[in-house]
Amino acid sequence: MLSFGDWPDFVMQTSITRRYKWGLLATIAISLLAIYPQVNLWMARGKEWKGSYVQVQGDEIAYSAYINALIDGRPRRNDAFMGRDDSVASPQAESLFSIQFIPAYTIALPARLLHLSSSTTFILLIVLISISSALAIFWLVRLRLFPLPAAVSAGPFVSDLFRILLLYLPSVCYQ
Question: Where exactly are the structural domains of the chain?
Answer without folding.
Answer: 10-174
